[in-house]
Amino acid sequence: MATVADGQLQWPNVSASTVILLHGLMCDETVWADQRAALSANYQVMVPDLRDFDSLEVMARAVLDAAPSQAHVVGHSMGGRVAWEIVRLAPARLRSLVVLDTGVHPVAEGEPEVRQRFLDLADLGGMEAVVDAWLPPMLHPDRRNDQELVGPLRAMVTGYRADQFKGQIRALLERNDATPLLPSMACPTLVICGRQDGFSTLARHEEFSALIPGAELAVVENAGHMVTVEQPEAITALLVDWLARIEDHEVADGDDGLGGSTAVSPGGRQGS
Questions:
Q1: What residues contact residue 105 under an 8 Å CB cut-off, 6+ apart?
Q2: 103 & 198 share domain
Q3: Distances 47 to 19, 23, 118, 236, 264 between C-alpha atoms, Å
Q4: Residues 115 and 168 in one domain
Q5: Could you tell me which of 130, 167, 194, 213 has the fewest CB atoms within 10 Å of its CB?
Q6: Total structural domains in the chain?
Q7: Are 77 and 28 in contact (CB under 8 A)?
């Protein structure tokens, strides 16, 4: 995982074929464990630690400062918001883009009040109180009592300090509307969503993916918002296939074979 020194991200041994995995709110490398293990055989995989930043733009600039001239960027949830900032700041730096269970819309009416309730929980009961309220709705209903899944996620969230959590909330509440960026995007783009994500819904992913020229949409079955750990094999299969197509130059200028949507069941099988 990338380290932070003097406000800058630092990685060793950066190579040309680089995949940058950007985590979401109150997350860390835990949510990318399966994908990182699989991709590391063929790529330099970077997982920046975004917990000490309070601005999406600053997060994006820190990633760009430490990254090679071009990279594949993969962003989940808040990490997808960071990815849109990279699109805004330096679109030519993207070899390809993958966003998972994220959004493009600006701050919605009532959102600050909802997020304030979580900040109040952090003040009153610490991060244990936050994870108790926050985590269950992020998961598929059938997985909320699965301790093999829930245990590591709880440990991840409670590993945050309250001030780090507050900084990330500040970043999200000061976010830009990414919608105007989408029609002019030129890099190959894959959009992934868990079908049962009740936070960043499939309908929203269908709407914004349709605005991105040539974008693919993949729907992962039996998954909520935390799709990378709820269905790790399916996500890993999607990323391995996507990156192989880009790296092998199977995407041709002007006729890249991208676009449309697929449904992905557990185990990575795709269906219509």
A1: 177, 178, 179, 204
A2: yes
A3: 9, 8, 26, 15, 25
A4: yes
A5: 213
A6: 2
A7: no
Q: Tell the residue number behind the tokens 């929203």, with chain if given.
A: 204
**Is pLDDT at 184 greater than 50 in this prediction?**
yes
Q: Could you tell me the pTM of the whole model?
A: 0.89
Please give the Cα distance from 56 to 168 (Å, whole number): 8
75 and 127 both lie in a single domain: no
pLDDT in tens, 16-26: 499 999 999 99
Contact 137, 199 (CB under 8 A): yes
83 close to 48: Cβ distance less than 8 angstroms:
no
Do 89 and 216 fall within a single domain? yes
Q: Quick one: 180 exposed, middle or buried, by C-beta within 10 A (0-12, 13-18, 19+)? A: exposed
Both tokens of residue 185?
């995007």
Domain that holds residue 37: 3-107+176-271
Whole-angstrom CA distances from 93 to 85, 88, 133 are 12, 11, 38
Q: Report pLDDT for 257.
A: 45
The single residue listed with the structure tokens 């069941």 is 265
3-state helix, strand, coil in the chain (%, to 5): 45, 15, 35
Residue-wise pLDDT tens digits, 47-82: 999 999 999 999 999 999 999 999 999 999 999 999
Domain boundary at 132, 155, 172, which?
172
Q: What is the CATH number of the domain that holds 55?
A: 3.40.50.1820
Structure-block tokens of residue 172: 């999200």
Query: How many separate helices (H) and strands (E) can be counted in the chain?
Result: 9, 10
CA distance 1 to 226: 20
Same domain, 61 and 100: yes
- Sign of CA pseudo-dihedral 137, 138, 142, 145: negative
Indicate whether 50 and 147 sit together in one domain: no
